[in-house]
User: Fold this.
Amino acid sequence: MVAHLRYSGLDADMQRQVLVDIIADDPVLMRFLRGMADLGLPDPLLGSGAIYNTVWNVLTGRERYAGIKDADIVYFDPSDRSYEAEDRVIRRTQAHFADSPIPVEVRNQARVHLWFPEKFGLVYPELTRSADMLLYFATRTHAVAARIENGEIVIFAPFGLDDLFSFRLTPNPALHNRATHESKAARAMVLWPELQFEPWPD
Assistant:
């Protein structure tokens, strides 16, 4: 078997434990997870590229943070959906992680449905919690997030982790978001040529 695919096709619980171990062994990701709790963000999650790109780097022997554009830190606060309230959290969170080698991008998932249609031209459902966002990622492979609960790393992955460990970019047609699936795949496959691209369904 090709070395970077050594966890492909394994039992779901085993894949989850491998991911937990990779995150736990990474001081930057652990600082993000602990920092989210220190900041008191409601329903926080660390998601997207900071996690799945780290996995691909570890499994292919690349430098840990190679190709990682940013770390997505999200929270869910429906009590104030104003941009001003979100901006205050963004500034506070970015200041907390100012010396991180990976820049952070912060979003209140309770207000995504307010700006997403204008930015992307697609209707976006109103979410009820942070983890709901994973259901609408253009690529299922990217739908993974984590946080610390009761001292343990908890993984959120509604489509499982086999696409991630199989280096397989699988589309998610929950939204008509083909362009995002294709554009993100194009960038990723330059950085991680081991990836296999699954086209958008007709």
About this structure: Residues 3-194 form one domain. The two ends are 32 Å apart (CA to CA). The longest strand covers residues 71-75.
